[in-house]
Structures are given as structure tokens and as C-alpha cells.
Specification:
The protein is mainly beta and 138 residues long. It has a single domain, classed as Immunoglobulins (Immunoglobulin-like, Sandwich), CATH 2.60.40. Helix content is 14%, strand content 39%. It is built from 2 helices and 8 strands; from the N terminus they run H-E-E-E-E-E-E-H-E-E. Strands 2, 3, 5, 6 and 7 form a 5-stranded antiparallel beta sheet that branches. The protein is globular and about 45 Å long.
Length: 138
């Protein structure tokens, strides 16, 4: 071997390039404790600028729902979801605005008299990640 240092340098550079590749990341969201298996879960993922980057309408199985997004980029995200039990694609509320259907947010964040702030729901996605969420009903 005439140039062992050069071989090591090339090996290290190759490893560094592979580690810095920002390929697609998979986010798996498991939602549990649904009241029933009627309807669907509607979920929207937003980026740090509140732009919708992914949406899903997913069937419920045995009072649980798993949603997978497999083409996200590294970054800061937030999501919100609700149990659309009657299939009208709207979060139904009573006369004073309290949800009649289950709902939730990333980080299992809770709001006071309204949805939680973005700061409570934001999370950083750097590699494949699974979130376990418990839905809220009134």
C-alpha cells in the first residue's frame, strides 16, 4: 500500500457523505383509546411556518389507528387530528364550541380554552420516529 493515509481519508469522507444525506424520514403515529371504530381519523402535519406538508384520512381498527408518513424531510413539525366518527370531514362541536368528537395534537399537548400553542406541539424530526398518542374526548 503506497498511500495508506489517502485511503483512510477517502473512507472517512465517504462515511461523512453518507451520514449527512438527508433522505426521506418515516413518521409513524399510533392513536389509541378511541371510543369506537366508526369513521376515520383525519390528521394534518404542518411545518414550522404552519404550511400543511402531509394529510391523511385513515380507517380505525379495533379502536386504534396507525398513520405512516414516509417521505418527510428533517425539520420541525406539528400535527393535529380528530376522530371523524360520522364521516362529514369536520370536527363537530356543541353550541359553545366544545368538540363532540375526539381530537388530539402532537406531543399529546393540551390547550386551555382552545388548541395548544405551536410551541407545545412542535417536535424535531431527524430520523425515523414513532409517536404514541392518546385521543381526548369530552
Amino acid at each position: 500500500m503506497r498511500y495508506p493515509c489517502l485511503k483512510h481519508l477517502l473512507l472517512h469522507l465517504t462515511c461523512l457523505l453518507l451520514l449527512s444525506f438527508d433522505g426521506p424520514i418515516t413518521l409513524t403515529i399510533n392513536i389509541t383509546q378511541l371510543e369506537n371504530s366508526d369513521g376515520h381519523i383525519l390528521l394534518q402535519v404542518t411545518d414550522a411556518e404552519s404550511n400543511a406538508v402531509a394529510e391523511s384520512i385513515q380507517a380505525i381498527d379495533n379502536k386504534t389507528c396507525t398513520i405512516v408518513f414516509d417521505k418527510l424531510k428533517p425539520g420541525n413539525y406539528s400535527y393535529k387530528y380528530f376522530h371523524d366518527a360520522n364521516g362529514n370531514k369536520e370536527l363537530d362541536t356543541n353550541m359553545i364550541g366544545i368538540p363532540k368528537e375526539g381530537y388530539g395534537f402532537s406531543n399529546n399537548a393540551k390547550g386551555t380554552f382552545g388548541p395548544p400553542s405551536f410551541e407545545k406541539t412542535v417536535f424535531t424530526l431527524q430520523n425515523d420516529t414513532t409517536h404514541n398518542c392518546v385521543i381526548t374526548y369530552f
